[in-house]
Amino acid sequence: MLLAIDVGNTQTHLGVFRADELSHEWRMSTAPDRTADELALISGQFLDLVGLSFSREITGVTICSVVPPLTQELRQMTERYFGFPAVVVEPGTRTGIAIKIDNPREVGADRIANAVAANDMFPGEPSIVVDFGTAITVDAVSDKGEYLGGAITPGIETAAGALYQATAQIRRVELIAPGRAIGKSTVQAVQSGIVYGNAALIDGLVERISKEVGGNANVIATGGQAPIVVEHCKLVDRIEPDLTLVGLRLIFERNFEITE
Questions:
Q1: Domain 98-242 sits in which CATH superfamily?
Q2: Which residues does the chain have with pLDDT short of 50?
Q3: pLDDT tens digits for 121-164?
Q4: CA-to-CA distance for 154 and 162, rounded, in angstroms?
């Protein structure tokens, strides 16, 4: 079985695949100062919850990370506790897609994993992936299976946090959609601006990017905060909450064979 680990700036998403089926998944907060031993302890506890262990069932580990200190610690964790090296999404790793940007080394590993999964889901068709995380990324994949680049904007929690910090009279609110766009209170006004504003932002970017890839692109959303906004978007076709993990599985398979 394969353990896939997606390390974001705010959360880390872990999943266990049995062949191509995602059997179990968990989320934990990302702490950049965790050591390999601490990461092993946490991973082992997650596995133990479903009756799995390092030594008996897990035969492969794959990682994408946007937090460099944790990337190194996860490498060490895998070698020390699993007994084999991890497949890390980085320059030189076989992904099966061409990266058509000015400097391929600077693109986030999670964005590549998303593109791999989208291309596998819609082969021969253009795709757009909207990933809601600490930042919102909107990335384009061509009908030839090429990663073309995309757009980056602050995530909804990131934008909301900046608003709270920069204003004296606006307090933190629950990020849900109000009943109407015209807020009748400060709370509703903030909710409207963040939720409906981001929905309009995503639709606008998707419309522009779709034209650049020839139109009629499949639009997929992922990330823990996607459901908050996507419900109010007009141009997002579907939510795939495990898209990055699926991309990690596909990348692993292009580098090693999973032993069940």
A1: ATPase, nucleotide binding domain (3.30.420.40)
A2: 259-260
A3: 999 999 999 999 999 999 999 999 999 999 999 999 999 999 98
A4: 10
Spans of all domains in the chain:
2-88, 98-242
pLDDT value of position 23: 95
Is residue 2 packed enough to be buried (19+ CB in 10 Å), middle (13-18) or exposed (0-12)?
Answer: buried
Ramachandran quadrant class, 6 (left: phi over 0; alpha: psi -120 to 50; beta: rest): beta
Q: How far apart are CA 221 and CA 227, in angstroms?
A: 9
Comparing 2-88 with 98-242, is the CATH topology the same? yes
**Options 3.30.420.40, 3.40.50.11930, 3.60.15.30, 3.60.15.10; which CATH number does 2-88 get?**
3.30.420.40
Phi-psi label, residue 149: left if phi above 0, alpha if psi -120 to 50, beta otherwise: left
Instruction: Find, among 246, 25, 7, the residue nearest to 134 by Cα.
Output: 7
DSSP per residue, 41-65: HHHHHHHHHTT--TTTT--EEEEEE
Q: Which residues belong to the active site?
A: 110
DSSP 233: -
Statement: the pTM of the whole predicted model exceeds 0.70: yes
- The tokens for 135 are 């930042």
Q: How many CA atoms lie within 13 A of 108 on its CB side?
A: 22
With contact defined as beta carbons under 8 Å apart, do 139 and 205 qualify? Answer: no
Give the CA dihedral 53, 57, 59, 61, nearest 10 degrees: -40
Q: Which residue has the tokens 């062949």?
A: 19
Helix (H, G, I), strand (E, B) or coil at 248: helix
